[in-house]
Amino acid sequence: MLAENILKHLKKEGYKFTNRRKLMVEILVANQDKFISAKTLCKEVQQMYPNVSWDTIYRTLALLLENGVIEKREFGEKGSKFRLVCHHHHHHHVVCLSCGKTKILDKCPMTFIDTVFDDFQVVEHRFELYGYCNACI
C-alpha cells in the first residue's frame, strides 16, 4: 500500500493532513512488514520535525485506526505497537517480540479447530505466533 493512496482515501473522507501526519503515514508504509511503537514513530518524525507533539502522534494513530488503515497489537510490557493493515487474502502472522517484524502465515489453524466445536459457531478469529526472528536471537 502506498502512502499517497492512503492519503487520497483519507482526504476523500474529509480529513486534512499536515506534513507531520503525511510523514507518519510514509513511515508506517516504509515499515509495513513490522509493528512499531508510537515512541519509535515519534522519534522518526522528530528527526524532521523536532517539535512534533505526542498529541499529534496519538491523534493521527487514532484517526488511522478508526479508518481501518492500521492495526494495533499489545506487546505486554512493551506496550502497543502499530502496523498497516494487511489487505491480502485471509492469513495470520508470526511476529518478532523484539523488532516487531512480521511474516505471513498462510495456513489457518481454524481449519483444524473448527471441527472441534459442534455447539459453538465461531464468527471471527485472530491467530498470531510471537517469538524472536533470527536477527534478534
Automatic annotation (TrEMBL):
Predominant location category: cytoplasm
Keywords, comma-separated and alphabetical: Cytoplasm, DNA-binding, Repressor, Transcription, Transcription regulation, Zinc
Subcellular location: Cytoplasm
Domain of life: Bacteria
Pfam families on file: FUR
InterPro entries: FUR, Fur_C, WH-like_DNA-bd_sf, WH_DNA-bd_sf
Family: Belongs to the Fur family.
The protein, known as: Fur family transcriptional regulator
